[in-house]
Amino acid sequence: MDYLPRVVDRELDELLAGLPALAIEGVKGVGKTATATRRAKTVIALDDPSQLEVIAADPTRLDAVAKPVLVDEWQRHPPVWDLVRRRVDAGAAPGSFVLTGSASPADAAIHSGAGRIVSIRMRPLALAERGLDRPSVSLRSMLSGSRREIGGSAQLTLTDYVDEIIASGFPGIRPMTGRARRTQLDGYLDRLVERDFPEQGLRVRRPQTLRAWLTAYAAATASTTSYNALLAAATPEESEKPAKTTTIGYRDVLEQLYVLDPVPGWAPGRRHLGKVGLAPKHHLADPALAARLLGIDAAALLRGESTGPPIPRDGSLLGALFESLVTLSVRTYAQAAEAQTRHLRTHSGTREVDLILERGDQRIVALEVKLSATVDDNDVRHLLWLREQLGDDLLDAAVITTGRDAYRREDGIAVVPAALLGP
Predict the structure, then answer these.
(1) Could you tell me which residues are beta bridge partners of residue 346?
(2) Helices and strands of the chain, counted as H and E runs
(3) Domain residues of the chain, as ranges?
(4) Which of 34, 95, 101, 174 is 20 to 30 A away from residue 310, measured at CA?
């Protein structure tokens, strides 16, 4: 399978030129190994029992092999983290080590690596990485505050975006179609319960409850539904609910596996906006996982159908999954531009902004996501309110749509088709 260039490629090249050790982290199947291998002269794959045995028996092998050395699935032998850290302390050259992992060890007694091993997140393919269209609007440029001219025409239609939700951003899964893809996604989810949870030290006594909780989380995509409400939706007919500690355990392990990718609430640092909610917005690592958990296909989404537990939401399930697809993409672009991704919701719920991209100096770009080809005054009211509150601290604002043309409205708010937004 041909390698698909990734936004993170440029980040890795920049960092490896100046840092001795990087750790690429992310959910299984996003392409960490393929990306890291392109930069390695030696690959040590710890999911290979023979290579694991060698490293466990002779850690000095790390010194003897050609650099850069990739240690793949390092979490299968957590002491290797400290081995690399000590090599960095001893003066390892820039670009010496790359570690990849699809889980954060829960109980391993390892040093944090702070100041020695820099972690970088890798997510499923963003829209701009899928080769669907040529982005004409740069998020990095928007974050610069230059307010450049907005333009370009997208080729994708609503049907195309729905197809992308179902296809997933996992490089090994998206080329599949029909039953093969559905079976592969089902297998991916089954392995979470059967293998990945035990490897993280948590034995799932009631797999059906975990699956139901995950399905409720999928139904709550792009919402701030409370975890108590998720549990109630997952077990509506059970008089004896699982203990709260049990479901907290589910959440913690799923975050360690990078399967959950919630967007934190934004707390304005320099301007007072009144009370704001800090509850995270729920997102799975890829909206295809949410669609598969809910058992819904492209045709049903286009018909406006919803499935799964009854989670209150504003708008349709398709709207929530489209927002999740855009969020996945925006987080990839924002990371490349050294910006944090948040969302804004006032405590009263009267004002909401789907995505807040914050620079290190606390100035921001605000994005609303709308499942529509057109934008009217009602769609930009929260962005205009935020501009009134923040003044120059709001660098730019846009509505991300399923439409064809990118342009800037008379009020200054940009309108950008999702396929035209890029890093």
Answers:
(1) 276
(2) 16, 13
(3) 7-121, 127-422
(4) 174
Q: 10 Å Cβ neighbour count for 355?
A: 25
Q: Extract the tokens encoding 189.
A: 């989810």
DSSP for 357-385, written as a single string:
EE-TTS-EEEEEE-SSS---GGGGHHHHH
Extract the tokens encoding 324: 């999740």
Size (the chain), residues: 423
151: nearest Cα among 419, 369, 398, 415:
415
Identity of residue 217: Y
| pLDDT tens track, the chain, 423 positions | 688 899 999 999 999 999 999 999 999 999 999 999 999 999 999 999 999 999 999 988 888 999 999 999 998 888 999 999 999 999 999 999 999 988 866 555 455 556 689 999 999 999 999 999 999 999 999 999 998 899 999 999 999 999 999 999 999 999 999 999 999 999 999 999 888 988 888 888 888 889 999 999 999 999 999 988 898 888 887 766 777 778 888 899 999 999 999 999 998 876 667 788 889 999 999 999 999 999 999 999 999 998 888 888 888 999 999 999 999 999 999 999 999 999 999 877 789 999 999 999 999 999 999 999 999 999 999 999 999 999 999 999 999 999 999 999 999 999 999 999 999
Domain boundaries 7-121, corresponding CATH code: 3.40.50.300
Q: Which residue has the tokens 């040093």?
A: 111
The secondary structure of residue 265, as a DSSP letter, is: B
Beta-strand runs (E) in 218-261: none
Assigned token pair, 294: 């809910």
Q: Is the pTM of this model over 0.70?
A: yes
β-bridge partners, 342: 356
